[in-house]
Automatic annotation (TrEMBL):
Gene3D superfamilies: Amidase signature (AS) domain. PANTHER family: GLUTAMYL-TRNA(GLN) AMIDOTRANSFERASE SUBUNIT A, MITOCHONDRIAL (PTHR11895:SF7), TRANSAMIDASE (PTHR11895). Belongs to the amidase family. This is Amidase. InterPro entries: Amidase, Amidase_dom, AS_sf. Residues 2-276 form the Amidase domain. It comes from Caballeronia udeis.
Length: 305
């Protein structure tokens, strides 16, 4: 996708595996509302967290593709035909975007923080209202809940494979399955109940209490990590996957190593088209094409010398 070889690619996100790599590669990543795209034929990891997402070159392509592929499927009982999409805010009306006072993930690297701050200033200059908000205490730390659901469901789906052929299962998956087998049924049931309750709470907080069109946060702490042994910190993506709400990341800048940095927008569940409209408005003001052009010109000049 980043190389321009294909116009559209699909990915799965159980924690952050659409939004984070899209940000690292300088492309648009879209994780829709949970169940919006049927997962028929996809090998599950944790069915209560698994999403199908899209990688595209721009937000308009993601919006077009989503209209084509979204919808229910009788073979995936998690998917749904239900849509409660509000009219997209295209910038012609007042737009209200929230920025969290304290991060939900690990600390941002300075370049990522600077890129988000500069983007927010451009959005505000073009008429958006940027509001600093506190993440509700009621949502608390979702990390333990996510871990319980992920590990238990991974153990259910893949535990038989580990028992049958332990040498074919990676150490990471082996550890995850064993962790899941250690979670009590009561703790798992509590985590699933909390997931439903907190998802409803978040939607009400975002739309009714804060009256936000979207939250603007980082998709990752910064640039992609060096090497292949670590895929990066997913803590900036995990809460929104757990809550099942739609998220979009758009590329906005280059970091100190010359690698892409992104901005992530979060919306309310079942308001995917509305969020995509906001993301397209933000994308138009991010200046990514100018960033790529300057980087390309700089590389050309370096080679000429």
């Amino acid at each position: 996708m980043s190389a321009g070889i294909v116009p559209l690619a699909f990915g799965t996100q159980t924690i952050g595996s659409v939004i984070r790599p899209a940000a690292y590669c300088g492309v648009v990543g879209f994780k829709p509302t949970y169940g919006s795209i049927a997962r028929t034929g996809v090998l599950p990891l944790a069915p209560s967290l698994d999403h199908i997402g899209l990688f595209t070159a721009n937000v308009a392509d993601a919006a077009y593709a989503f209209k084509v592929v979204s919808g229910g499927d009788d073979q995936d009982f998690h998917s749904s035909h239900v849509r409660r999409n509000g009219k997209g805010n295209d910038g012609s009306a007042h737009m209200r975007i929230g920025m969290l006072r304290r991060p939900v993930g690990t600390a941002m690297e300075p370049a990522q923080h600077s890129a988000l701050t500069q983007l927010a200033a451009r959005l505000e200059a073009d008429g958006a209202e940027l509001v600093t908000v506190d993440f509700p205490d009621e949502l608390g730390d979702m990390g333990a809940l996510i871990s319980a659901i992920l590990s238990v469901e991974a153990a259910v789906v893949h535990g038989a494979l580990l028992d049958r052929s332990p040498g074919l299962v990676s150490p990471v998956m082996t550890s995850l399955i064993n962790d899941g087998r250690g979670v009590s049924s009561v703790d798992y049931a509590r985590a699933r109940a909390a997931q439903v309750r907190l998802a409803h709470f978040f939607d009400h907080w975002l739309q009714a209490a804060m009256r936000l069109d979207a939250l603007l946060v980082a998709p990752a702490p910064g640039e992609a990590p060096v090497g292949l042994s670590y895929t990066g910190d997913a803590s900036w993506c995990a809460p929104w996957t757990f809550l099942g709400v739609p998220t979009v990341t758009v590329p906005i800048a280059l970091g100190p190593a010359g690698l892409p940095l992104g901005a992530q927008l979060i919306g309310a569940a079942q308001h995917d088209e509305r969020l995509l409209a906001v993301a397209e408005w933000v994308e138009a003001r991010a200046g990514w094409q100018d960033v790529k052009l300057k980087a390309s010109t700089s590389r050309d000049n370096t080679r000429d010398t």
